[in-house]
Amino acid sequence: MQSLKIVSRLIPDVRSGKKQHTIRWREEKIIPGPMQYVNADDDTDTFVVQVTKVKTMKLFTVACYLGKLEEWPDDVLLRGMREHYPDIRLDSEVAVIHHLVPLT
Fold first, then answer.
1. Rounded mean pLDDT of 32-46?
2. Is residue 66 classed as helix, strand or coil in its secondary structure?
């Protein structure tokens, strides 16, 4: 099964359904279907979501695409993404992975 690591601070929002997407750069290709999230701090903490679609785009278009322009101006989005990907740029091509609430 395809899988991705996720930082532990985001897990509650994914599990509750508040967060139903992730933005990835230069990671394993993800396709629609089941996907396992693995807690980056605890490999035994996992859960499965159903990926519904994956859109590839430049990072600078992500905030508009997700309807988060006010929350994520370019500098905020870039700073947040650089916590995980220090070399990412606004013109880097990323994958926006959409998923449903975790399967039980």
1. 96
2. coil
